[in-house]
């Protein structure tokens, strides 16, 4: 026998169902918007094509710079990717060892910055006072402590002692959230499942457990081989994520603009940028740079967006792995050459 829809019990049940659906509508709408952004990002990245002319320019420029910089020439690995984002045209890609995974040091922090805004758009978190301050410290000051707080917020994880198998499996799954979100956008080659550490006690327990987990794909080992699952980024994957950010894809346009503003660089205010992308690019009048550097041991890196006065943009990622450590002008000189050739008033490409 079916329930009479006019009975009080049936009406109460119907009201409960409607109330539940009403509560779920924002989450369902957010999920739909997120899926739509992911599709748009993947479709855009599918248009990125290798370009022979741009590749010829990059090869010649890198060879020239390496020829006159003996320390850079001795580096174990130099990974570079350049994407030309010219309005009205398909993005053009050139790279030098651009698909080689390299430990990124603090460059990975800009990935977590973008993820924080994506999570807010999905209703997962709010960028309130404390988190806002942590994001600023993570990007502008490159604070590892702030990065740990941001990353643990993104992944809903905590530091602590090593975990038993069932709990570790849950922990590991949560730590993969950022990487899986990147893959949903069509961005591969960015293994981003750890925060960054200061040393001296902030790396222990379950964090070491994950670093030693060789069953997780995408990571790289340290020199001793005891950490099989370290952070890794390819220059091509990094440049593609920057291309999305430059093109207001993957985030709402206003959030993408806010992320870029947090990454805006001025060598006059941060002198160490003289040897990085900003230090080379701003030699061309009217150019702005949004980037994140990385420096640790053998790693010297930078990745950013270079925006010209006409609106044409470049996504440039450079990772140098060298022993002895390299700290020279290679990145800045490469940035200067790319900016002059593609964005300057006398651009030739």
State the name of the first-level CATH class: Alpha Beta
Low-pLDDT residue intervals, each spanning 5 or more residues: 20-29
Which percent bin holds the helix content? 40-55%
Order of SSEs:
HEHHEEHHHHHEHEHHEHEEEH
- Looking at CATH, the homologous superfamily is DD-peptidase/beta-lactamase superfamily
The CATH topology assignment is Beta-lactamase
End-to-end distance, in Å?
77 Å
Number of strands: 9
The strand line-up of the biggest sheet is 1-3-2-9-8-7-6
Task: Look at the helices and sheets and give the structural class.
Answer: alpha+beta
Largest sheet: 7 strands, mixed
- The radius of gyration is 22 Å
CATH architecture: 3-Layer(aba) Sandwich
Overall spatial form: globular
Number of domains: 1
Notable features of this structure?
alpha+beta; globular; two-stranded antiparallel ribbon; seven-stranded mixed beta sheet; 349 residues
């Amino acid at each position: 026998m079916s329930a009479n829809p006019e009975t009080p019990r049936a009406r109460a049940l119907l009201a409960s169902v409607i109330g539940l659906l009403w509560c779920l509508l924002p989450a369902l709408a957010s999920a739909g918007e997120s899926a739509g952004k992911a599709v748009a990002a993947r479709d855009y990245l599918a248009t990125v094509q290798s370009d022979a002319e741009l590749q010829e320019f990059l090869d010649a420029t890198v060879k020239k710079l390496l020829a006159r910089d003996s320390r850079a020439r001795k580096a174990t690995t130099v990974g570079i990717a350049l994407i030309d984002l010219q309005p009205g045209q398909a993005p053009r890609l050139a790279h030098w060892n651009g698909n080689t995974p390299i430990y990124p040091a603090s460059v990975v922090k800009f990935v977590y910055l973008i993820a924080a805004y994506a999570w807010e758009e999905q209703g997962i978190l709010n960028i309130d006072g404390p988190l806002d301050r942590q994001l600023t410290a993570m990007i502008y000051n490159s604070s590892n402590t702030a990065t740990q707080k941001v990353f643990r917020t993104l992944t809903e994880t905590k530091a602590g002692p090593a975990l038993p198998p069932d709990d570790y499996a849950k922990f590991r799954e949560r730590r993969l959230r950022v990487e899986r979100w990147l893959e949903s956008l069509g961005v591969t080659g960015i293994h981003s499942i750890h925060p960054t550490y200061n040393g001296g006690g902030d790396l222990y327990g379950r964090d070491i457990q994950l670093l030693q987990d060789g069953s997780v794909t995408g990571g790289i080992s340290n020199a001793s081989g005891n950490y099989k699952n370290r952070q890794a980024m390819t220059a091509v994957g990094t440049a593609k994520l920057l291309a999305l950010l430059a093109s207001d894809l993957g985030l709402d346009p206003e959030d993408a603009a806010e992320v870029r503003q947090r990454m805006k660089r001025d060598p006059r205010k941060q002198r160490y940028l003289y040897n990085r992308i900003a230090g080379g690019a701003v030699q061309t009048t009217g150019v702005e740079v949004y980037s994140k550097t990385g420096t640790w041991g053998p790693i010297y890196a930078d990745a950013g967006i270079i925006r010209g006065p006409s609106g044409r943009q470049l996504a440039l990622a450079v990772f140098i792995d060298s022993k002895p450590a390299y700290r020279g002008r290679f990145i800045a000189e490469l940035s200067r050459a790319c900016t002059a050739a593609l964005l300057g008033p006398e651009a030739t490409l």
